Amino acid sequence: MAEDEQGEKQQKTSTERLFRIAIALKGLDGAVQLIGALILAFIPSTVVTGFTHAVITRDLLGDPSGTLARHLQLASEHFVDGGTKTFAVAYLLAHGVIKLALVFALSRKWVRAYPVAMVVLAAFVVYEVYRAIDTHSIALPFFAALDAVIIVLVYREYRQLRRERAVQRESGEPGSGG
Q1: What percentage of the chain reaches a pLDDT higher than 70?
Q2: Cα(28)–Cα(20) distance, integer angstroms
Q3: What DSSP string describes 7-44?
Q4: How wide is the angle at C-alpha 55 spanned by C-alphas 77 and 34, nearest 5°?
Q5: CB within 8 A of 61, min separation 6: which ones?
Q6: What is the CA 175 to chain-centroid distance, rounded?
Q7: How crowded is the C-beta side of 49, counted as CA atoms within 13 Å?
């Protein structure tokens, strides 16, 4: 019996540790996105096209007529000509602020924030997959997969937290509110 309890406690500790690392990374990601949105909002389009041109012409991506160079050139053109810059700023700003708010709530173990976090992250996953298909982005599927893993970790932590709160309520311990 004691072995089972110790194994369960160790698994809880590693799961919680992994959860804490994941939300810390999400918080860092949210902060970087927020800063990126603010920087992107003020960068002139000529800086973006100049950077792209410099990378391609200096063969930093291999052959200037290669697939990677063409992909960067196309992305740069969409960014400058289309509504991609506006989208990127709005997306990064919203994503960053929402992530930071969720990380704050989850770090405080606000039980009601867990389902909200799962729904919001699932919406991000759906949207990231949609945008990846629409724009042929190579980065968005990675972010979608990362968000999916974090959803699983949030769900596991939520279940554990609810179990702990139920035990606290049954035993009449203080701090069982949520």
Answers
A1: 84
A2: 12
A3: HHHHHHHHHHHHHHHHHHHHHHHHHHHHHHHHHHHHS-
A4: 65
A5: 55, 68, 69, 72
A6: 30
A7: 8
What pTM, to 2 d.p., does this model score?
0.66
**61-104 residue pLDDT tens:** 566 677 777 777 777 777 777 667 787 888 889 889 988 998 99
pLDDT score for 7: 55
Residue 148 amino acid letter: A
175 and 168 in contact (C-beta within 8 Å)? Answer: yes
Where would I find the beta strands (DSSP E) of 39-115?
none
Q: Which helix (H) or strand (E) holds 140?
A: helix 140-171
Query: What was the pLDDT predicted at 47?
Result: 82
Q: Hunting for tokens 């949210």 — which residue is that?
A: 30
